[in-house]
TrEMBL record:
Entry's transmembrane regions: 73-91
Keyword Glycosyltransferase appears in the UniProt entry: no
Protein name: General stress protein
Keyword annotations: Membrane, Transmembrane, Transmembrane helix
Domain CsbD-like: 8-57
Protein family membership: Belongs to the UPF0337 (CsbD) family.
Stored Pfam families: CsbD (PF05532)
Protein source organism: Bombella mellum
Domain of life (superkingdom): Bacteria
Lineage per the UniProt record: Bacteria, Pseudomonadati, Pseudomonadota, Alphaproteobacteria, Acetobacterales
SUPFAM superfamilies associated with the record: Hypothetical protein YjbJ
Listed InterPro entries: CsbD, YjbJ_sf
Length: 95
């Protein structure tokens, strides 16, 4: 599955790199570098948060994956029903 430890490490490194770029851009007055630093910070934070979220819900995700693999037709029926309900709620015929 997903190696969350390396994903967290990559997120921390990317966020730290973004902080440095942001600071250098602020000091030098380079708005593009500063914006790139902020984007790197957000990307690194997103990787780290995804890894935390994945760790917290990994057992649920594995259970859902097993259910889908064991019962694909039932899963397809559930998805179709949910889609139908959402379609009826949001796309009512107006007349």
């Amino acid at each position: 599955m997903v190696d969350t430890t390396s994903m967290k490490a990559e997120g921390f490194v990317q966020e730290a790199k973004g902080r440095v770029k942001d600071a250098v851009g602020a000091i030098s007055g380079d708005a593009a570098m500063q914006a790139g630093g902020k984007i790197d910070q957000l990307g690194g934070r997103a990787k780290h948060e995804f890894a935390d979220l994945y760790d917290a819900h990994e057992s649920r995700l594995e259970a859902v994956t097993a259910f889908i693999q064991e019962r694909p037709l039932v899963s397809l029926g559930i998805v179709a029903l949910v889609g139908l309900v959402i379609g009826r709620l949001f796309f009512r015929k107006r007349g």
